[in-house]
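Data card: per-record layout.
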Amino acid sequence: MDQTAILNQTWAYVQETLAGECSGHDWRHIQRVWRNALQIAQDEDVDLFVVQLAALLHDIADWKFHGGDLDAGPRAARMWLEQLGVDEPVIAHVCAIIGDISFKGADVATTMRTREGMIVQDADRLDAIGAIGIARAFTYGGYKGHAIHDPTTKPQRHANFEQYKNNTSPTVNHFYEKLLLLKDRMNTETGRSIAAKRHAFMEQFLDQFFHEWEGER
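The structure for this 217-residue chain is written out next.
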């Protein structure tokens, strides 16, 4: 099977698998990450086949919906790619990217091992910030039953993955525990440029939010 056919089948598989998902990790999220990845990759000398497969499959079995199992995503991706007869080095590369991509806490390193991985990680993180990121944060918070904001609950810097995955703090805290940290953790020049604009928008949003919370605007 040629690469175009594999990508087309993977596109259809992910779209069907994530149909009806309502936490902000839906098929439209995958589309946006895929587009972001292609945009970033324009300025990079990388394997676009690996980049696209990893972007399409990066949330096929997200740990947040599989009991915190970080291996669920790579395992599901491997099963799918093996069915399509994809070469083992490509499968291993894609699965490594999926295994490493997630944010796991403010004080937890999430270093990517390849340039392809750096691109997909940046693409995914761009969709977690800016206007889309704000929308997704509150969508996921509502999905999990988290409060919008509680001034008595302070943001935390999670020292390990266990602390991060068990976090139940209000959604506004998530900006300080993750989203506002992503700008400085981008891997590529293109990612950093786009992230700076989206980061500034989040800061403007939070400024307005806190003024409205206090009845000042």
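Known properties of this structure: The chain has ten helices and no strands. The radius of gyration is 17 Å.

See the next section for split statistics.
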